[in-house]
From TrEMBL:
Alphabetically ordered keywords of this record: Nucleus
Naturally occurring in which organism (per UniProt): Rhizodiscina lignyota
GO terms assigned for molecular function: DNA-binding transcription activator activity, RNA polymerase II-specific; zinc ion binding
Upper classification of the organism: Eukaryota, Fungi, Dikarya, Ascomycota, Pezizomycotina
Signal peptide boundaries: none
Protein name: Zn(2)-C6 fungal-type domain-containing protein
SMART domains registered for this protein in UniProt: GAL4
Domain Zn(2)-C6 fungal-type residue range list: 24-54
Length: 406
């Protein structure tokens, strides 16, 4: 018969005697759960994806270096796990503000569910099949350590859900607006300071997310509300600047370094096809003769001083390509190799530059690329209407606009 002992702190309560072990790991002690004392890692730590530590002075939970976060929110048993994960992530997201003190964004249960849906759906819509697993594994670890990337991840996941639900830019939730703003502000602050290897990797992923968000952020819901028909604003072509900014961050991040955890994600940028899009002179031959004539590129001797030369060359090299997630990097070359003079022509609504942009929009308007669809459809149609209203005397205009409208 078991011996019943009376507890000192609960006089009326009885409990069974048992042998206590103090050899459990530090994480189980911290969480006050029974440890099975398996080494090198107990089952509790393996299940939770944290590093198992039997050191006497262990005082905090740390993410396991090889683990992949899997945020499960569908069963009652997962609630305590999510609370533990939130505490772990929130601790790693604490940062010292420039004015002193600590800035903390406390993740909520809803945030964890957004991150889970991001892993399941949004990431696969942004990365091609051969790299999506790297985004999900390494990208999530970085997200849980860097506030600017956490905000960007939450923002783009919310944006993806909104767009796929058929809601407009004007129907952004307060949470999406907040995370978009915080992502942009904290990202910019990181660009000017010294960076750790982990921050360099996170900076590149944040650049990809922010440039994608800029493409999807269009206020118009009809062509007549879209640029260039609407009144001009300094921010009209910010999406171009964001994509071109990847050139700068590419140099800062230096993903070719040996200690980069995400360098394998961008192997496509070294693809010889990308170089061909920007430099293969045969691209001009793929363009309509009427367009070449309009741009002054129909002569035997083509001068590279022509402000339309590079944009036309890249566009011609893309004519035989279909735009999807696997080929998206090729279509970004058109923007990332865009020269300053050509961008100025776009800002001034030069009709020839606008026509080249409309042709690019026609190539990238694919429902498989959710963040390009609305802008490419609305602004392409807006360009056609603008040219008809303001440059109807332009040679071959009617023929060149055929096929650009839906």
């Amino acid at each position: 018969m078991p011996v019943l002992l009376r507890s000192k702190d609960a006089p009326g309560r009885k409990r069974r005697a048992h042998a206590k072990s103090r050899r459990g790991c530090g994480n189980c002690k911290l969480r006050r759960v029974k440890c099975d004392e398996l080494k090198p890692s107990c089952m509790n730590c393996m299940s939770f994806g944290v590093s198992c530590n039997y050191a006497q002075n262990s005082s905090s939970l740390e993410l396991a270096g090889e683990s992949v976060f899997q945020l499960q929110t569908h069963s009652p048993q997962s609630l305590s796990l999510n609370e533990t994960m939130r505490n772990m992530i929130n601790k790693s997201l604490m940062q010292v503000s420039p004015a002193g003190g600590v800035d903390v964004y406390q993740l909520t249960e809803d945030d964890l569910q957004v991150l889970e849906r991001c892993q399941a759906r949004t990431i696969s819509s942004l990365a091609e099949e051969k790299t999506v697993h790297i985004y999900r594994a390494e990208g999530l670890k970085l997200t849980c350590c860097h506030p600017f990337l956490m905000h960007a991840t939450l923002a783009i996941a919310m944006m993806h859900e909104r767009v796929m639900a058929g809601k407009t830019f004007k129907e952004q939730s307060t949470a999406e607006i907040y995370h978009s703003y915080q992502a942009t502000a904290t990202f910019r602050s990181k660009l000017s300071g010294p960076l750790t290897p982990s921050e360099r990797d996170a900076l590149w992923i944040a650049t990809v997310l922010l440039s994608t968000m800029s493409l999807a952020s269009i206020d118009a819901t009809a062509p007549e509300e879209a640029w260039p028909l609407m009144s001009s604003f300094p921010t009209d072509l910010d999406w171009l600047e964001m994509i071109q900014g990847k050139n700068v961050v590419w140099k800062i991040a230096d993903l070719a370094r040996p200690d980069s955890a995400v360098g394998r994600m961008v192997i496509g940028f070294k693809d010889s096809r990308l170089q061909a899009v920007a430099k293969d002179a045969s691209g001009l031959q793929a363009l309509p003769q009427e367009l070449l004539e309009l741009l002054g590129l129909d002569t035997c001797v083509v001068t590279k001083n022509n402000p339309y030369y590079r944009a036309a060359l890249c566009l011609g090299n893309l004519f035989g390509e279909e735009c999807n997630i696997a080929t998206l990097a090729l279509f970004y070359v058109w923007i990332m190799s865009m020269e300053a003079e050509f961008k100025q022509l776009l800002r001034r609504k030069d009709p020839r530059a606008l026509l080249l942009l409309a042709y690019w929009f026609r190539k990238v308007r694919s429902r498989h690329v959710w963040f390009l669809w609305q802008r490419s459809v609305l602004e392409c149609q807006a360009i056609c209407t603008y040219l008809e209203q303001n440059h109807s005397d332009m040679p071959h205009l009617e023929n060149l606009l055929l096929g650009l409208r839906y």
